[in-house]
Specification:
263 residues, alpha/beta, Carbamate kinase, two-stranded antiparallel sheet, binds adenosine-5'-diphosphate, binds N-acetyl-L-glutamyl 5-phosphate, cytoplasm, ATP-binding, acetylglutamate kinase activity
């Protein structure tokens, strides 16, 4: 089964800063039979390329308004530039990786989000080709997945990377999703001091969104987390990728980052 697999989401905020030892850790995990399935973002790189091309970009509640011109850039940057950059780094560390987007082998099937009238060609996941992921892992490869989805008519969709990672974790039946970002976890100001919360529950998340303590890019992360822990995923852990040994620490049950748990 998928119990020795975990899904790791790497945010665009942190990708360029991930140190070489982070990729060495991925190799060690792969060698020891704890298999990472990587889903990555790349929001800042997409915005920078859109700007260079003079294409306007706008976010509505954390989702990029996407038309066909924007989608061309999203696919080019995510499935091309970022996906291959991660595959190269994993391979440089001595591990085996194959990069795909959700389009390849119908890996991520998608449908328009309910507010498509506002955001355009943005998708939610309807199905994940778990057999393809399993096949790659059986062949000894770490899958590296770009969050571009496709529907039965061949229409592509831009999918928020946190949403895609949560759906992949749910549908693969893994126990754990690790969300690697640029902050040490979910933070809250207590007595005028910013602290990382070691653990939060679904109801605490709802309160923190309502109070504005969780905002911006943290919102799709916690929403994806809440959605997958209502299924088989036992916990979602939000961590800083720059912290040495972070993955092994999380997998070993050490208190790092913020754990989002059912209750
Ligand atoms: N309560 C919170 N604790 C920590 N970070 C938060 C919180 N609320 C909002 N954020 C913001 O979320 C950001 C991470 O989201 P984002 O920039 O989209 O990262 P990524 O590219 O990794 O998906 C943090 O850098 C921080 O600015
Ligand atoms: C619909 C939507 O907003 N898609 C995102 C996909 C990339 C992403 O989510 O990257 P991060 O994880 O780095 O934020 C975008 O276009 O930026």
């Amino acid at each position: 089964m998928a119990n020795n697999w975990f899904v790791m989401k790497c945010g665009g905020s942190t990708l360029a800063a991930l140190p070489e030892p982070f990729f060495a850790e991925l190799r060690q995990l792969q060698e020891s039979g704890t298999i990472p399935v990587i889903v990555h973002g790349g929001g800042p790189a997409i915005s920078s390329t859109l700007e260079k091309l003079g294409i306007e970009t706008e976010f509505v509640n954390g989702l990029r308004k996407t038309n066909e011109a924007v989608l061309d850039v999203v696919e080019m940057v995510l499935s091309g530039q970022i996906n291959k950059e991660i595959v190269r780094k994993v391979q440089q560390a001595g591990a085996k990786a194959v990069g795909l987007s959700g389009v390849d082998g119908l890996l991520i099937e998608a449908e328009p989000v309910p507010n498509a009238h506002e955001v355009g060609l943005v998708g939610n996941v309807t199905n994940v080709n778990a057999g393809l992921v399993r096949g790659l892992i059986d062949l000894g490869y770490m899958p590296v997945i770009a969050p571009v989805g496709i529907d039965a008519r061949g229409q592509r969709y831009n999918i928020n990377a946190d949403t895609a990672a949560g759906a992949v974790a749910s549908r693969l039946g893994v126990e754990r999703m690790i969300v690697v970002t640029d902050v040490p976890g979910i933070m809250r100001t207590v007595d005028g001091e910013k602290r990382v919360l070691p653990q939060v529950t679904v109801s605490e998340i709802d309160e923190m969104i309502a109070s504005g303590e969780i905002y911006g890019g943290m919102i799709p992360k916690v929403k994806a987390a809440v959605q997958c822990i209502t299924g088989d995923v036992r916990e979602v852990v939000i961590v800083d990728g720059a912290r040495p040994g972070v993955l092994t620490a999380v997998l070993g049950g050490e208190p790092v980052g913020t754990r989002i748990v059912k209750a």
